[in-house]
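Changelog note: in this version the structure field was regenerated for every chain. One regenerated record is shown below for reference.
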Amino acid sequence: MSDIRKRTGNKGTTYQVRYASSATKSGYAYKTFGTMKEARAFLESGRALEAGQIEDRPISVDEGIRIWLDACEKEGRGGRNPVTTYTLKTYRYRAGIIRDYPWTKPLNELGAPDVVEFRSWLLQNHSRDQARKVLSYFHSMVLELVNRGFLRHDFAAGVKVSGTSRYDEPVSIPSEKDIQELLLAVDRLANSKNAQIAKTWERYRPMLYLAVDSGMRPQEYLVVAKSSFDDRGVRVERALDAGGKKISVTKTISGRRIIDLSPETIDMVRYYTDRIAAENQFDLAFPTSNGRWVSSNNWRRRGFLAACNEAGLVSSEEVNGKLVDVPKYKPYDLRHFYASMLIENRVSLKRIQKLMGHADIQTTLNVYGHVIERVEDEQESRTCLISGLAQNSCGKSVASTL
Protein backbone atom coordinates (compact mmCIF):
# COMPACT_ATOMS: atom_id res chain seq x y z
CA MET A 1 0.00 0.00 0.00
CA SER A 2 1.70 3.22 -1.19
CA ASP A 3 0.68 6.86 -1.16
CA ILE A 4 1.99 10.39 -1.59
CA ARG A 5 1.76 12.95 1.20
CA LYS A 6 2.16 16.68 0.76
CA ARG A 7 4.41 18.25 3.40
CA THR A 8 4.82 21.99 4.06
CA GLY A 9 7.56 23.21 6.37
CA ASN A 10 10.52 25.58 6.76
CA LYS A 11 12.05 24.30 3.54
CA GLY A 12 8.85 24.83 1.56
CA THR A 13 6.56 22.20 0.07
CA THR A 14 7.78 18.64 -0.50
CA TYR A 15 6.12 15.37 -1.44
CA GLN A 16 6.74 12.29 0.66
CA VAL A 17 6.17 8.81 -0.78
CA ARG A 18 5.24 6.11 1.71
CA TYR A 19 5.78 2.60 0.38
CA ALA A 20 5.87 -0.95 1.72
CA SER A 21 9.25 -2.15 2.88
CA SER A 22 10.22 -5.44 4.46
CA ALA A 23 13.39 -3.78 5.77
CA THR A 24 11.63 -1.75 8.48
CA LYS A 25 9.75 -2.70 11.63
CA SER A 26 6.71 -0.62 10.72
CA GLY A 27 6.51 -2.25 7.28
CA TYR A 28 6.89 1.13 5.54
CA ALA A 29 9.71 3.28 4.16
CA TYR A 30 9.66 6.93 3.02
CA LYS A 31 11.29 8.98 0.24
CA THR A 32 10.92 12.74 -0.26
CA PHE A 33 10.75 14.63 -3.57
CA GLY A 34 10.62 18.28 -4.49
CA THR A 35 7.68 17.94 -6.90
CA MET A 36 4.54 15.84 -7.19
CA LYS A 37 5.68 14.78 -10.67
CA GLU A 38 8.86 13.21 -9.31
CA ALA A 39 6.96 11.46 -6.53
CA ARG A 40 4.44 9.98 -8.96
CA ALA A 41 7.18 8.87 -11.33
CA PHE A 42 8.86 7.02 -8.44
CA LEU A 43 5.66 5.14 -7.69
CA GLU A 44 4.51 4.47 -11.24
CA SER A 45 7.89 3.24 -12.45
CA GLY A 46 7.88 0.43 -9.88
CA ARG A 47 10.97 1.78 -8.16
CA ALA A 48 9.04 1.96 -4.87
CA LEU A 49 8.50 -1.80 -4.91
CA GLU A 50 12.14 -2.40 -5.82
CA ALA A 51 13.30 -0.04 -3.06
CA GLY A 52 11.07 -1.76 -0.54
CA GLN A 53 12.67 -5.12 -1.30
CA ILE A 54 16.21 -3.88 -1.86
CA GLU A 55 17.59 -6.03 0.97
CA ASP A 56 15.71 -9.05 -0.39
CA ARG A 57 15.14 -10.11 3.21
CA PRO A 58 12.70 -13.04 3.48
CA ILE A 59 9.50 -12.38 5.37
CA SER A 60 8.65 -15.08 7.88
CA VAL A 61 5.18 -16.37 8.66
CA ASP A 62 5.45 -14.82 12.11
CA GLU A 63 6.28 -11.41 10.62
CA GLY A 64 3.40 -11.74 8.16
CA ILE A 65 0.99 -12.54 10.98
CA ARG A 66 2.17 -9.51 12.95
CA ILE A 67 1.66 -7.14 10.01
CA TRP A 68 -1.76 -8.66 9.27
CA LEU A 69 -2.97 -8.46 12.88
CA ASP A 70 -1.76 -4.86 13.18
CA ALA A 71 -3.73 -3.97 10.05
CA CYS A 72 -6.85 -5.69 11.39
CA GLU A 73 -6.60 -3.90 14.73
CA LYS A 74 -5.46 -0.40 13.78
CA GLU A 75 -6.42 0.26 10.16
CA GLY A 76 -8.91 -2.32 8.98
CA ARG A 77 -8.29 -4.64 6.06
CA GLY A 78 -9.03 -3.49 2.53
CA GLY A 79 -10.67 -0.23 3.61
CA ARG A 80 -12.95 -1.90 6.18
CA ASN A 81 -13.30 -0.70 9.76
CA PRO A 82 -10.85 -2.07 12.34
CA VAL A 83 -12.16 -5.26 13.96
CA THR A 84 -13.67 -5.23 17.46
CA THR A 85 -11.67 -6.31 20.50
CA TYR A 86 -13.56 -9.59 20.73
CA THR A 87 -13.07 -10.35 17.04
CA LEU A 88 -9.37 -9.56 17.36
CA LYS A 89 -9.10 -12.23 20.07
CA THR A 90 -10.51 -14.74 17.59
CA TYR A 91 -8.03 -13.60 14.94
CA ARG A 92 -5.15 -14.02 17.39
CA TYR A 93 -6.33 -17.47 18.42
CA ARG A 94 -6.41 -18.69 14.81
CA ALA A 95 -3.12 -16.92 14.09
CA GLY A 96 -1.71 -19.09 16.87
CA ILE A 97 -2.81 -22.19 14.97
CA ILE A 98 -1.06 -20.88 11.85
CA ARG A 99 2.11 -20.38 13.91
CA ASP A 100 1.85 -23.96 15.27
CA TYR A 101 2.44 -25.44 11.82
CA PRO A 102 6.12 -26.39 11.22
CA TRP A 103 6.86 -23.93 8.42
CA THR A 104 10.13 -24.72 6.63
CA LYS A 105 10.17 -21.73 4.26
CA PRO A 106 9.59 -17.99 4.55
CA LEU A 107 6.34 -16.65 3.14
CA ASN A 108 7.96 -15.23 0.01
CA GLU A 109 9.12 -18.73 -1.01
CA LEU A 110 5.81 -20.53 -0.45
CA GLY A 111 3.68 -21.82 -3.31
CA ALA A 112 0.32 -23.54 -3.73
CA PRO A 113 1.74 -27.03 -2.91
CA ASP A 114 2.96 -25.70 0.44
CA VAL A 115 -0.50 -24.36 1.23
CA VAL A 116 -2.01 -27.73 0.29
CA GLU A 117 0.35 -29.38 2.80
CA PHE A 118 -0.74 -26.85 5.41
CA ARG A 119 -4.38 -27.68 4.66
CA SER A 120 -3.69 -31.40 5.14
CA TRP A 121 -2.08 -30.68 8.51
CA LEU A 122 -5.08 -28.60 9.57
CA LEU A 123 -7.56 -31.34 8.62
CA GLN A 124 -5.54 -33.95 10.47
CA ASN A 125 -5.18 -31.92 13.67
CA HIS A 126 -8.35 -29.83 13.86
CA SER A 127 -12.04 -30.07 13.07
CA ARG A 128 -13.08 -29.47 9.48
CA ASP A 129 -14.83 -26.25 10.42
CA GLN A 130 -11.78 -24.98 12.29
CA ALA A 131 -9.49 -25.96 9.39
CA ARG A 132 -11.70 -24.06 6.96
CA LYS A 133 -11.64 -20.90 9.09
CA VAL A 134 -7.90 -20.99 9.79
CA LEU A 135 -7.10 -21.47 6.09
CA SER A 136 -9.37 -18.55 5.27
CA TYR A 137 -7.48 -16.38 7.77
CA PHE A 138 -4.17 -17.48 6.29
CA HIS A 139 -5.39 -16.45 2.83
CA SER A 140 -6.52 -13.10 4.26
CA MET A 141 -3.00 -12.56 5.59
CA VAL A 142 -1.46 -13.39 2.21
CA LEU A 143 -3.75 -10.92 0.44
CA GLU A 144 -2.86 -8.20 2.94
CA LEU A 145 0.85 -8.76 2.33
CA VAL A 146 0.35 -8.74 -1.45
CA ASN A 147 -1.51 -5.43 -1.21
CA ARG A 148 1.28 -3.96 0.90
CA GLY A 149 4.00 -5.06 -1.51
CA PHE A 150 5.62 -7.75 0.67
CA LEU A 151 4.55 -10.59 -1.61
CA ARG A 152 4.39 -10.51 -5.41
CA HIS A 153 1.38 -12.79 -5.87
CA ASP A 154 -1.42 -14.61 -4.04
CA PHE A 155 -0.04 -18.14 -3.87
CA ALA A 156 -2.89 -19.33 -1.59
CA ALA A 157 -5.65 -18.58 -4.09
CA GLY A 158 -7.92 -21.54 -4.80
CA VAL A 159 -6.74 -23.69 -1.87
CA LYS A 160 -9.80 -24.07 0.35
CA VAL A 161 -11.60 -26.40 2.73
CA SER A 162 -15.18 -26.81 1.61
CA GLY A 163 -17.74 -26.66 4.35
CA THR A 164 -21.49 -26.82 4.68
CA SER A 165 -23.26 -23.54 5.19
CA ARG A 166 -25.35 -22.94 8.29
CA TYR A 167 -28.10 -22.09 5.80
CA ASP A 168 -27.96 -25.32 3.82
CA GLU A 169 -31.05 -26.40 5.73
CA PRO A 170 -34.01 -23.99 5.68
CA VAL A 171 -34.09 -21.73 8.72
CA SER A 172 -36.80 -22.27 11.32
CA ILE A 173 -39.51 -19.66 10.79
CA PRO A 174 -42.45 -19.25 13.23
CA SER A 175 -45.87 -19.03 11.64
CA GLU A 176 -48.15 -16.01 12.05
CA LYS A 177 -50.28 -18.06 14.45
CA ASP A 178 -47.19 -18.92 16.51
CA ILE A 179 -46.26 -15.24 16.77
CA GLN A 180 -49.83 -14.31 17.73
CA GLU A 181 -49.74 -16.91 20.51
CA LEU A 182 -46.32 -15.65 21.62
CA LEU A 183 -47.51 -12.04 21.86
CA LEU A 184 -50.61 -13.06 23.79
CA ALA A 185 -48.44 -15.08 26.15
CA VAL A 186 -46.19 -12.06 26.70
CA ASP A 187 -49.23 -9.94 27.55
CA ARG A 188 -50.39 -12.51 30.11
CA LEU A 189 -46.97 -12.59 31.75
CA ALA A 190 -46.77 -8.79 31.90
CA ASN A 191 -50.19 -8.71 33.59
CA SER A 192 -49.54 -11.65 35.92
CA LYS A 193 -50.89 -11.54 39.49
CA ASN A 194 -47.43 -12.64 40.56
CA ALA A 195 -45.66 -9.34 41.24
CA GLN A 196 -42.19 -10.68 40.43
CA ILE A 197 -43.27 -12.12 37.08
CA ALA A 198 -45.12 -8.92 36.18
CA LYS A 199 -42.09 -6.79 37.07
CA THR A 200 -39.77 -8.99 34.97
CA TRP A 201 -42.03 -8.66 31.97
CA GLU A 202 -42.29 -4.88 32.22
CA ARG A 203 -38.92 -4.95 30.44
CA TYR A 204 -39.09 -8.20 28.47
CA ARG A 205 -42.45 -7.45 26.90
CA PRO A 206 -41.40 -4.36 24.87
CA MET A 207 -38.15 -6.12 24.00
CA LEU A 208 -39.99 -9.06 22.45
CA TYR A 209 -42.47 -6.83 20.64
CA LEU A 210 -39.54 -4.88 19.22
CA ALA A 211 -37.78 -8.08 18.15
CA VAL A 212 -40.86 -9.25 16.23
CA ASP A 213 -41.63 -5.88 14.69
CA SER A 214 -38.09 -4.94 13.62
CA GLY A 215 -36.16 -8.10 12.75
CA MET A 216 -33.22 -6.76 14.74
CA ARG A 217 -30.52 -9.15 15.88
CA PRO A 218 -30.68 -9.98 19.62
CA GLN A 219 -27.29 -8.33 20.13
CA GLU A 220 -28.75 -5.16 18.59
CA TYR A 221 -31.98 -4.78 20.54
CA LEU A 222 -30.38 -5.77 23.86
CA VAL A 223 -28.33 -2.55 23.76
CA VAL A 224 -30.53 -0.34 21.57
CA ALA A 225 -30.36 3.29 22.69
CA LYS A 226 -33.36 5.10 24.12
CA SER A 227 -32.50 8.03 21.85
CA SER A 228 -32.66 5.77 18.77
CA PHE A 229 -36.48 5.78 18.75
CA ASP A 230 -38.66 8.41 17.10
CA ASP A 231 -42.30 8.62 15.99
CA ARG A 232 -41.60 6.46 12.96
CA GLY A 233 -39.30 3.73 14.15
CA VAL A 234 -35.80 2.91 15.33
CA ARG A 235 -32.25 3.63 14.19
CA VAL A 236 -29.96 0.62 14.53
CA GLU A 237 -26.46 1.95 15.20
CA ARG A 238 -24.80 -0.35 17.71
CA ALA A 239 -24.67 -3.90 19.00
CA LEU A 240 -23.42 -5.99 21.87
CA ASP A 241 -19.87 -7.20 21.32
CA ALA A 242 -19.79 -10.95 20.64
CA GLY A 243 -18.17 -11.44 24.04
CA GLY A 244 -21.12 -9.72 25.69
CA LYS A 245 -18.81 -7.43 27.65
CA LYS A 246 -19.18 -4.09 25.89
CA ILE A 247 -21.29 -2.11 23.44
CA SER A 248 -19.75 -1.96 20.00
CA VAL A 249 -20.70 -1.07 16.43
CA THR A 250 -23.11 -3.14 14.38
CA LYS A 251 -21.89 -6.37 12.79
CA THR A 252 -21.17 -4.55 9.51
CA ILE A 253 -21.59 -1.01 8.18
CA SER A 254 -24.74 -2.28 6.46
CA GLY A 255 -26.10 -3.08 9.91
CA ARG A 256 -26.65 0.62 10.49
CA ARG A 257 -30.19 1.15 9.32
CA ILE A 258 -33.59 2.70 10.05
CA ILE A 259 -36.57 0.40 10.55
CA ASP A 260 -40.23 1.42 10.56
CA LEU A 261 -42.18 0.21 13.58
CA SER A 262 -45.87 -0.22 14.28
CA PRO A 263 -47.42 2.48 16.52
CA GLU A 264 -48.18 -0.18 19.15
CA THR A 265 -44.53 -1.09 19.45
CA ILE A 266 -43.34 2.52 19.60
CA ASP A 267 -45.92 3.35 22.30
CA MET A 268 -44.96 0.30 24.34
CA VAL A 269 -41.22 0.98 24.15
CA ARG A 270 -41.63 4.66 24.99
CA TYR A 271 -43.91 3.89 27.94
CA TYR A 272 -41.19 1.66 29.36
CA THR A 273 -38.23 3.95 28.61
CA ASP A 274 -39.96 7.11 29.88
CA ARG A 275 -41.69 5.77 33.00
CA ILE A 276 -40.02 2.57 34.13
CA ALA A 277 -36.46 2.17 32.82
CA ALA A 278 -33.62 2.88 35.24
CA GLU A 279 -31.32 5.80 34.56
CA ASN A 280 -28.08 4.61 33.01
CA GLN A 281 -24.88 5.97 31.47
CA PHE A 282 -25.26 3.98 28.25
CA ASP A 283 -28.60 5.49 27.09
CA LEU A 284 -30.03 1.93 27.12
CA ALA A 285 -33.69 1.50 26.31
CA PHE A 286 -33.91 -1.73 28.36
CA PRO A 287 -31.38 -1.44 31.20
CA THR A 288 -31.25 -3.74 34.21
CA SER A 289 -31.73 -2.25 37.69
CA ASN A 290 -27.98 -1.62 37.97
CA GLY A 291 -27.89 0.35 34.71
CA ARG A 292 -26.21 -2.36 32.61
CA TRP A 293 -27.61 -4.25 29.63
CA VAL A 294 -29.51 -7.54 29.82
CA SER A 295 -27.20 -10.48 29.18
CA SER A 296 -27.94 -12.69 26.20
CA ASN A 297 -28.22 -15.76 28.44
CA ASN A 298 -30.70 -14.12 30.81
CA TRP A 299 -32.84 -12.91 27.93
CA ARG A 300 -32.85 -16.35 26.35
CA ARG A 301 -33.61 -18.29 29.55
CA ARG A 302 -35.74 -15.95 31.65
CA GLY A 303 -37.36 -14.07 28.80
CA PHE A 304 -37.79 -15.77 25.46
CA LEU A 305 -37.92 -19.38 26.67
CA ALA A 306 -40.43 -18.49 29.39
CA ALA A 307 -42.63 -16.84 26.74
CA CYS A 308 -42.44 -19.95 24.54
CA ASN A 309 -43.46 -22.14 27.48
CA GLU A 310 -46.38 -19.85 28.30
CA ALA A 311 -47.49 -19.90 24.65
CA GLY A 312 -47.19 -23.69 24.39
CA LEU A 313 -44.54 -23.38 21.69
CA VAL A 314 -42.58 -26.37 22.95
CA SER A 315 -41.84 -29.89 21.78
CA SER A 316 -40.76 -33.00 23.65
CA GLU A 317 -37.21 -34.23 23.23
CA GLU A 318 -35.25 -36.96 24.96
CA VAL A 319 -32.44 -35.57 27.10
CA ASN A 320 -30.34 -37.97 29.20
CA GLY A 321 -32.99 -40.63 28.81
CA LYS A 322 -35.90 -38.39 29.88
CA LEU A 323 -38.53 -36.58 27.83
CA VAL A 324 -38.37 -32.84 28.42
CA ASP A 325 -40.14 -29.88 26.88
CA VAL A 326 -37.86 -27.64 24.81
CA PRO A 327 -38.84 -24.43 22.98
CA LYS A 328 -39.57 -24.79 19.28
CA TYR A 329 -37.75 -21.57 18.47
CA LYS A 330 -34.75 -19.43 19.42
CA PRO A 331 -34.69 -15.63 19.82
CA TYR A 332 -32.99 -15.32 16.42
CA ASP A 333 -35.99 -17.02 14.78
CA LEU A 334 -38.02 -13.83 15.37
CA ARG A 335 -35.65 -12.19 12.89
CA HIS A 336 -36.41 -14.90 10.35
CA PHE A 337 -40.13 -14.35 10.91
CA TYR A 338 -39.74 -10.64 10.20
CA ALA A 339 -37.92 -11.37 6.94
CA SER A 340 -40.54 -13.92 5.90
CA MET A 341 -43.31 -11.38 6.43
CA LEU A 342 -41.48 -8.84 4.29
CA ILE A 343 -41.23 -11.45 1.55
CA GLU A 344 -44.88 -12.43 1.94
CA ASN A 345 -45.81 -8.78 1.51
CA ARG A 346 -43.77 -8.46 -1.70
CA VAL A 347 -41.23 -5.98 -0.35
CA SER A 348 -38.40 -5.64 -2.86
CA LEU A 349 -35.36 -7.84 -2.35
CA LYS A 350 -33.04 -4.81 -2.12
CA ARG A 351 -35.26 -3.29 0.55
CA ILE A 352 -35.28 -6.57 2.48
CA GLN A 353 -31.47 -6.67 2.36
CA LYS A 354 -31.34 -3.14 3.78
CA LEU A 355 -33.89 -3.78 6.54
CA MET A 356 -32.13 -6.99 7.58
CA GLY A 357 -28.74 -5.26 7.64
CA HIS A 358 -27.14 -7.77 5.25
CA ALA A 359 -23.87 -6.57 3.73
CA ASP A 360 -24.39 -8.78 0.65
CA ILE A 361 -27.68 -9.50 -1.10
CA GLN A 362 -26.38 -13.05 -1.64
CA THR A 363 -26.78 -13.59 2.10
CA THR A 364 -30.44 -12.61 1.83
CA LEU A 365 -30.92 -15.05 -1.03
CA ASN A 366 -29.06 -17.87 0.73
CA VAL A 367 -31.10 -17.57 3.92
CA TYR A 368 -34.55 -16.85 2.52
CA GLY A 369 -34.45 -18.21 -1.01
CA HIS A 370 -36.89 -21.01 -0.15
CA VAL A 371 -39.38 -18.47 1.21
CA ILE A 372 -39.05 -16.26 -1.87
CA GLU A 373 -39.76 -19.25 -4.10
CA ARG A 374 -42.87 -20.10 -2.09
CA VAL A 375 -44.41 -16.65 -2.33
CA GLU A 376 -46.44 -16.38 -5.54
CA ASP A 377 -49.53 -14.33 -4.86
CA GLU A 378 -49.30 -10.56 -5.16
CA GLN A 379 -50.23 -8.80 -1.93
CA GLU A 380 -50.27 -5.26 -0.69
CA SER A 381 -46.88 -4.32 0.75
CA ARG A 382 -46.57 -3.42 4.42
CA THR A 383 -43.57 -3.28 6.74
CA CYS A 384 -45.26 -2.51 10.10
CA LEU A 385 -46.17 -6.01 11.21
CA ILE A 386 -47.53 -5.86 14.74
CA SER A 387 -50.68 -3.96 13.70
CA GLY A 388 -51.82 -6.94 11.66
CA LEU A 389 -50.80 -9.62 14.12
CA ALA A 390 -51.39 -8.37 17.64
CA GLN A 391 -55.17 -8.72 17.77
CA ASN A 392 -56.80 -10.83 20.46
CA SER A 393 -60.07 -12.68 20.07
CA CYS A 394 -62.08 -9.55 20.89
CA GLY A 395 -60.38 -7.54 18.19
CA LYS A 396 -58.56 -5.39 20.75
CA SER A 397 -54.82 -4.90 20.39
CA VAL A 398 -52.90 -6.87 22.96
CA ALA A 399 -50.60 -3.86 23.28
CA SER A 400 -53.44 -1.67 24.52
CA THR A 401 -53.33 -3.07 28.05
CA LEU A 402 -50.60 -0.66 29.10
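Spot check on this record: The chain has three domains: 3-17+27-50, 61-147, 176-401. The chain is about 45% helix and 10% strand.
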